[in-house]
Amino acid sequence: MTGTQRTSDGLDPRRRMVLFRAWHRGTREFELLTGRFADAQIGELSEAEVDDFEKLIEVPERDLIGWITGNLVTPENYDTSVWRKMKAFHKPTGPLHR
User: Could you give the CA distance from residue 84 to residue 64 in angstroms, rounded to a whole number?
Assistant: First the structure.
């Protein structure tokens, strides 16, 4: 897999930038977590959820991966609706595990 599977056509400039950033953040593992979620959800997120997602993609990689795997407790200020959507998206039956 080389990156995004979604076109940015039809997205407003902010969402285009967030989609790009989700796929160009750091390690491949991190990009798969954030990028695949963005591909699937960026067009459906509310403005507040886009705000929260922007904050999530700035979290240090080791922290976000620890939160996803359950090895670290998610801090209260990151436990948002978009975080819960992202975590549910990456359940063992989700796309990351196929």
Answer: 12
pLDDT per residue as tens digits for the range 11-56: 889 999 999 999 998 788 888 889 999 999 999 999 999 999 999 9
Give Cβ neighbours of residue 40 (< 8 Å, ≥ 6 apart).
6, 89, 95
What ranges do the domains of the chain cover? 13-93
CATH architecture of 13-93: Orthogonal Bundle (1.10)
Measured between its terminal Cα atoms, the distance across the chain in Å is: 12
Closest listed residue to residue 11, CA positions, set 52, 41, 51: 41
Helix, strand, coil percent values for the chain (each to nearest 5): 60, 0, 40
